[in-house]
Amino acid sequence: MFGAIEAGGTKFNCALANANGEVVAKTQFPTRDPETTMIDVVEFFTHTQQTHGTMQGMGIGSFGPINIDLKSEHYGRFLKTPKPGWSHFDFLATLQQSFDVPIFVETDVNTAVLAEHSNGAGAGCDNVVYVTIGTGVGGGIISDGRLVKGGIHPEVGHMLLPRHPDDHEFPGACPFHGGCLEGLAAGPSMKARWGVPSETLGDDHIAWDIQAYYLAAMCINLTSTLSPQKIILGGGVSQKPGLIDRVAAQFESLWGDYLPLPGSGRVSDYIVLPQLAPEAGLVGAIMLAQQAGQSPR
Amino acid sequence: MFGAIEAGGTKFNCALANANGEVVAKTQFPTRDPETTMIDVVEFFTHTQQTHGTMQGMGIGSFGPINIDLKSEHYGRFLKTPKPGWSHFDFLATLQQSFDVPIFVETDVNTAVLAEHSNGAGAGCDNVVYVTIGTGVGGGIISDGRLVKGGIHPEVGHMLLPRHPDDHEFPGACPFHGGCLEGLAAGPSMKARWGVPSETLGDDHIAWDIQAYYLAAMCINLTSTLSPQKIILGGGVSQKPGLIDRVAAQFESLWGDYLPLPGSGRVSDYIVLPQLAPEAGLVGAIMLAQQAGQSPR
């Protein structure tokens, strides 16, 4: 058996999977303070192991910022985060107290890109970027078949973008950078900008033109910096019907007659929706658990 | 012996080096049309080999866009480029007609980042970005000790940035994107903006505040996207005395009280000048030639 956790800022998804990666038990609960949340995590895996058998490894795809450097003594520990109670919480050590198995920790977007690269929208591509646009904006990058880890880990969400011509008054909602990508385009930022949740904004509201512009500009910057073969837009906000077509149109307009896009050359084959959503993060965490189970102790 | 070429858009540097990487002969000539330029290249290596001995391999660090995918049938060939005569020119095949040795091809910024990562400003760091700001803007990225290649190759130069508050009238000089990073901050763009070459602008000209802002915003985007341990600013424009300190100050202001920077945590240790300039590209091309010489034929 393999244990997988998709630890999101709003909710936790836990699953127990067999050696074929098939889920045999799963649960979901809200993310509260770390101590309370971990009681639910430990209880789920303790009980399901009694029914289904012992875990050989665990994989975590977590919200960040979190240390994902296997060589660091702080591997698996959160960095400073605005999320109350979670700054410097040692996720890995706490889990390891209850489960004496190999555990690998990645960001949630890294497990999502691992899954989409393996079996989803990025299959067959060596260079894939996955960006989630939801409560926050986060990115996972695969270059030449391997995760780009960096010194801490890529975030993508705090990049700076030009302003849409009709959006110069809103200061942005990022507590650190005001109008960075996350401060302009994440779900809470859209809510702060328009006064209502983004999912209640009508299809022809100018909000979606502005949103498409920011996501297209983000895709330009990812293209210029990483030259990926696919950009996958995940997360709740990206699910808005028709949004991805608007992003594609704005991307074409911003990119102009520059280098040809990879593959078919069509934007619609380059900027795409996930194929495994909303399970991509959990599927990737199962893959990570299998890698952990095969790792030397 | 090993042959190295740093092929820039303005000039070519060629060197013959011994097994220790020491240069035994070198030359420089202007970049003209490919046929004329290649005559000089072939002549240099033909003559110097007669004096110093036979080459075991060659390395090229070239301006782009150029195919650097070893697995591609078009490896070593230019893509479409605005540089007259160079679109689709097959650099590798032309060189291979005269020199029957293994030849590796990278972008000039990739050879520069290889050199700075090995022996220069990025030594000891697994994650390094090198950006040259000169005739154009180009970037080379090392992640976890390996070059990030992408589907074509990273460029960095065409990312989109917010406008400096005092710079809303200049449309930008990039023929494809107007006011992208290259269209705002490359040498020719500064000249188009201010009417004189950037090196003649006085130290207290507002041009340098605006320039520092764009380079700082670029560094924010590279940090958010790649989480490097060092950002190295190369190229002629970066050499302006005092500019890097202004970039650091603007970066601190834009980054705010967000995640700590790597290493010492000081911006002055994070955004740095090259240590091997102006030779970094050529030093990296020698390293590449040595790798080529050791590769299976």
Task: Describe the structure in your own words.
The structure is a homodimer of 297-residue chains. Chain A is of the alpha/beta class and 297 residues long. A 5-stranded mixed β-sheet of chain A has the order 3-2-1-4-5. A 5-stranded mixed β-sheet of chain A has the order 8-7-6-9-10, sandwiched between helices. The longest helix of chain A has 21 residues. The relative contact order of chain A is 0.16. Chains A and B meet through strand 7 and helix 6 of A and strand 7 and helix 6 of B.
Indicate the topology:
Two copies of one chain form a homodimer.
Chain A: E1 2-7, E2 11-17, E3 23-30, H1 34-52, E4 57-62, H2 91-98, E5 103-107, H3 108-119, E6 128-133, E7 137-143, E8 146-147, H4 181-185, H5 187-194, H6 206-226, E9 230-234, H7 243-255, E10 271-272, H8 280-294
Parallel strand pairs in A: 1-4, 4-5, 6-9, 9-10
Antiparallel strand pairs in A: 1-2, 2-3, 6-7, 7-8
